[in-house]
Amino acid sequence: MSTLKNQLQSDLTAAIRQQDEITMSTLRMALAAVTKAEVAGKTARELDDDEVVGVLVGEAKKRREAAEAFDGAGATDRADRERDELVVLERYLPSQLSEDELKDLVAQAVASAAAEGKTGPAAMGVVMKSLTPQTRGRADGGLVAALVKQALA
Asked: 99-152: what CATH class?
């Protein structure tokens, strides 16, 4: 079993003992999502820590989007609940890259692609392929893609 999944389960046990409703429900939801990912596909398998982080990133993104939607609909109490769940999930995610760090990574990837003879919009795939492992779970993919497009333009 992955270390991160073990951590989620032990933290869930602690939250149950402390009767921390938000943490309890959020960790149960996260563990359910991990289990769903493990049994998806033709054969069940155990996820490693990177894959668990990927599942948690997806769940965090859902919470962010739901909070925005609830704010737009005027349901501030439900939006606050989504943000509280997001705070719990962020405890298990790697620290986010700052925009300056992200711009530096993009510049390095674009320079590397240019050294291979790939330039302009055609280099988008090459640059994103090299950036994805470095930014997975640490930056929003849409922001990374926007910065790459801007750098390649």
From this structure: mainly alpha
pLDDT tens profile 105-151: 888 888 888 777 777 777 788 888 888 888 877 887 888 888 888 88
pTM across the whole model: 0.77
3-90 has which CATH code?
A: 1.10.1510.10
Task: Report DSSP letters for the chain, one per residue.
Answer: --HHHHHHHHHHHHHHHHT-HHHHHHHHHHHHHHHHHHH-SSS-----HHHHHHHHHHHHHHHHHHHHHHHHTT-HHHHHHHHHHHHHHHTTSPPPPPHHHHHHHHHHHHHHHHHTT--GGGGHHHHHHHHHHHHTTTS-HHHHHHHHHHHH-
Q: What angle do CA 91, 127, 90 make, to 5 degrees?
A: 5
Give the lowest-confidence range in 19-28, 87-96, 131-140. 131-140
